[in-house]
Amino acid sequence: MKNTKKKESMSLKEHKKSNVLIVAYLRELPTIESLNEFLYSVAMQKHPTDLLLLHGGLSKAHMEVLQGVIDKPTITLHKPNPDFDPENPSKAPKVINETTQSLFPLNVVLQEVKVSTFAEVFNTGFQAAKEHGYEFMSICEPEDVYSTYWVDTALTYAKERPEIGIFTPIIRNVVFGAFQGYYNEAPWAEGMAEEAGKYDQNLMLKFNCLSPLGAIVRMKSLLESEDAIEERDEKLYPMKTNIKLTSPYEFFLRMAYNDIEIMNVPRLGYEQRIYRREEYFPTTSKLPQNLVQMPEDKGGMTQQEAQFWHKKATDAYFIEDDEPIEYIPA
């Protein structure tokens, strides 16, 4: 893992050690702290995983930084100082910063790709998981973190519930560094879902209430559903690229429509981190809160267009084909 060029030229086939593939796309490097925390959370999974890091062509300098973090993912823990005296605070600090390195090495493959949307990132990862015989796949973003027990917990549920095709975690939502609540928990609320813990079509048509991030996809369930996924040139495209902005929402609606059961595991498994951006890049699944205030050349759009794409998702989920759709302002 020391030689980046060698690592990038080697395939998943040569490095496959797990039945679970985690996929992330690096449009650019996040902060070193975020990158360390993300890779540490993957390396420390109780159930070992393989990691496919897609990127759009990082510079040599950034590749060297990335490889250095891959080799030694390290995080900083902030612990209360037992020697702190509130009556004499200058004597000793209240908090001690302690660094800790991952106990396990990452099994990671780097791959340069050309993608422009989150749907293309998802489809690239899904195709890789299919071609290399992975049983499960998970999509994430490299500024977020997994709970170190999440994959193991999800696979325990998968063993007990073979009929479930997709398992989603409870997501801890952090906006600009501040905790804002939980996500994906809607099917556990009283009176929301037809069956507690499961996302049904009626629930999802009322609310766009789940995120693809951190979800564990059982490959077999999707591959055996012939009408759920479009196939072109012997490749599968589970997430539509023609649904701008809301492709994950349409994907989940289509999965439910094709009887692929989606369950929320009542465990905290993923922390989604949202930062203020001056520009929106569609390779992320996270929609900025200021999207409709952004100029068009920075990825922004009008409220009318955002509503258009949301409606298209609810109108097209029962259609398999990924035909082009154009938004024409009124």
Topology:
Layout: H1 4-9, H2 12-15, E1 20-26, H3 32-43, E2 50-55, H4 60-71, E3 74-80, E4 95-101, E5 107-112, H5 118-131, E6 136-140, E7 145-146, H6 150-160, E8 164-175, E9 178-183, H7 201-206, E10 216-218, H8 219-223, E11 230-232, E12 235-237, H9 247-257, E13 261-274, H10 303-316
Parallel strand pairs: 1-2, 1-6, 2-5, 8-13
Antiparallel strand pairs: 3-4, 6-10, 7-13, 8-9, 8-10, 11-12
Helix pairs in contact: 3-4, 9-10
Characteristic terms for this protein:
alpha/beta; Spore Coat Polysaccharide Biosynthesis Protein SpsA, Chain A; 9-stranded mixed β-sheet; two-stranded antiparallel sheet; disordered N terminus
Task: Give an account of the 3D structure.
The protein is an alpha/beta fold and 330 residues long. The protein has one domain (4-75, 98-316): Alpha-Beta Complex (Spore Coat Polysaccharide Biosynthesis Protein SpsA, Chain A), CATH 3.90.550. The protein is built from ten helices and 13 strands. The strands form three sheets. Strands 1, 2, 5, 6, 7, 8, 9, 10 and 13 form a nine-stranded mixed β-sheet that branches. The protein has a two-stranded antiparallel sheet with strand order 3-4. Helix 3 (32-43) links the parallel strand 1 (20-26) and strand 2 (50-55). Helix 3 crosses helix 4 and helix 9 (247-257) packs parallel to helix 10. The radius of gyration is 21 Å and the shape is globular. The chain starts with a helix and ends in a 14-residue tail after the last helix. Residues 1-9 have low confidence and may be disordered.
